[in-house]
Amino acid sequence: MTSIFRFAAVAVAFIATAAHAQITVKDAWVRATVPQQKATGAFMQLQSAKDTRLVSASSPISPNVEVHEMSMQDNTMKMRQVPAVELPAGKTVELKPGGYHVMLLNLPRPIKEGETVPLTLTFESKAGERETVEVQAPVRPLNSSSAPAEHGSHGDKAGHAH
Ligand SMILES: [Cu+2]
Predict the structure, then answer these.
(1) How many angstroms separate the alpha carbon of residue 99 from the centre of ligand 1?
(2) How many CB atoms lie within 10 A of CB 100?
(3) Is the pLDDT of residue 65 over 90?
(4) Minimal CA–CA distance to 136: which of 27, 63, 20, 9?
């Protein structure tokens, strides 16, 4: 069962792989949002045959798309915009929850599981050559990640009753 499922997942990954010879995008996905949530992240694995860097991204579903990095600082998850994500030749760089991600901001509507989000990624080489890669990223549910579990309602309140 597991191997069949895995095979299906690989097939999807191949379809999602950009057709460009130099840069490969695998396993792209976007995290679903809940109503009122105006931003979400897109995640993927990037690999390039030559040194390059991811400098920007865009999507028809969001007027503001930024490249972000999340990191732990003083026990708090901090998120900031970065000018680029370096892609050393041949090395797989993962955009994942808790690390680099493509941030989709000011969403006009919720993004639901089962949708596909088109993304255009722009890469720039050291020589300043730009190229774009189109990706169709499926939307996955909110809880599908290896991100730290959110702290919900922990039963920390020990009662004072006897
Ligand atoms: Cu972000």
Answers:
(1) 9
(2) 21
(3) yes
(4) 27
Q: Are strands 130-140 and 23-31 parallel, antiparallel or unpaired?
A: parallel
Q: How far is the CA of 81 from the centre of ligand 1 (A)?
A: 7
- 24-143 has which CATH code? 2.60.40.1890
How far away, in angstroms, is 65 Cα from ligand 1 center?
A: 9
pLDDT tens per residue, range 110-120 = 999 999 999 99
Quick one: how far is CA 65 from the chain centroid? 12
Decide: 154 and 77 in contact? Cβ < 8 Å: no
Q: What percent of the chain has pLDDT over 90?
A: 67
pTM above 0.85, yes or no: no
